[in-house]
Specification:
- There is one protein chain.
- This protein is globular.
- Strand 2 and strand 3 form a beta hairpin.
- The strands form two sheets. It has a nine-stranded mixed sheet with strand order 5-4-1-8-9-10-11-12-13, with helices on both faces. Strands 3-2-6-7 form a four-stranded mixed sheet.
- The chain has a single domain (5-305), classed as Ribokinase (UDP-N-acetylmuramoyl-L-alanine:D-glutamate ligase, 3-Layer(aba) Sandwich).
- It contains ten helices and 13 strands.
- The relative contact order is 0.15.
- It starts with a strand and ends with a helix.
- It is α/β, with parallel strands linked by helices.
- The chain has helices at 31-41, 59-66, 134-143, 155-163, 168-179, 189-198, 203-212, 257-272, 275-289, 294-305, and strands at 5-9, 12-18, 24-30, 47-55, 77-80, 85-90, 98-103, 121-125, 148-152, 184-188, 218-222, 228-234, 237-243.
């Protein structure tokens, strides 16, 4: 395959890490991890086009940070009057991190900033839960009918669970609509449980909904240091794959690792057309990045060490 273009949609956020003095030090978070990971595996001629708003006071700072990435086209990043999300990150050894909201924004991404030409893939990561609406997903599929669309439901899962509490039928309808516009879905184990419990079904029922009532062809369940369980639809048959990491990082820093995995997997899928190969590369890079804490540690590591196969 020649050069590839990936459209990246998901909110930029600020992650607050506690300093030795007990105050919060804010670093880029959210979709920033995905962008640095993508750049580390992209090849000559490859291009990524991130589309998201940045608070006007930080707009130039964010553009300068992205200028470190040779494959990034910043034309879709636009200034906003509204502040970006801020969260306090709570590290927990060998567990998914916790987050405490400091400032929450409900602004959706403005699709007027989308590129005219169709990308090879669209990587969507719900960083705030308000990143895109159902009609936005429909518009993306209509606008880019041939693109491979991978969706990490991420924070949207919590929003859905809260919005449809005691309304499983409503959540099922929402999920069926989401599943109808994407090729691939990513959740972690906790998010998976929230979805099938909230929709009044089982894990198997949720997968059937995605594969047979939607257009999903791949469903990824990330399990941190234990690897990934991936489900793949081939014609009318569903196949499962259990992928383990080559090396387990003890007491690693999981923040951003799911964002790294999903973006690299998306790039590799349009490169190799192989689920196992794509996930192996993505898991390797995410696992290695888990050795580093915060964006500053992971970003530099990715730029130096990411471009291995």
């Amino acid at each position: 395959m020649g050069s590839s273009t990936i459209l990246v949609l998901g909110h930029f956020c600020w992650d607050g890490l506690e300093s030795d003095a007990g105050s919060l030090k804010y670093e880029p978070g959210g979709i920033a991890y995905s962008l640095f990971a993508l750049s580390s595996v992209m090849e000559t001629g490859d291009r990524m086009i991130p589309v998201f708003p940045v608070e006007k006071d930080s707009y130039q700072t964010v553009l300068q940070e992205l200028a470190r990435l040779p494959h990034a086209d910043p034309s879709g990043i636009y200034p906003s009057e509204e502040k970006n999300d801020r969260v306090r990150v709570i590290y927990r050894p060998d567990e998914d991190p916790g987050y405490e909201s400091i400032h929450s924004s409900e602004q959706p991404i403005n699709l007027n900033h989308l590129p005219e030409t169709e990308p090879d893939a669209v990587y969507i990561n719900f960083q705030t839960g308000f990143d895109l609406k159902i009609q936005d997903l429909a518009a993306l599929r209509s606008r880019y009918p041939k693109a491979f669309i991978h969706l990490d439901l991420h924070v949207r899962t919590d929003r859905l669970f809260a919005s449809f509490k005691n309304n499983p039928a409503g959540l099922q309808l929402e999920l069926k609509q989401v599943f109808g516009f994407v090729d691939s879905v990513q959740v972690n184990q906790r998010e998976l449980q929230m979805l099938f419990l909230g929709s009044g079904t089982t894990e198997k029922g949720l997968l059937k909904m995605a594969f047979f009532e939607g257009q999903v062809r791949f469903f990824l369940i990330t399990k941190g240091s234990r690897g990934v369980v991936a489900w793949e639809k081939v014609l009318t048959t569903i196949h499962s794959h259990i992928l383990r990491p080559e090396q387990v990082v003890e007491n690693g820093y999981a923040v951003g690792c799911g964002d790294i995995l999903g973006s690299v997997y998306t790039h590799q899928m349009i490169r190799t057309q192989s689920l196992k190969k794509s996930l192996s590369t993505a898991m390797r890079l995410a696992g290695q990045a888990a050795k580093k804490q915060g964006f500053s540690g992971k970003a530099d590591y990715l730029l130096v060490n990411g471009a291995f196969r």
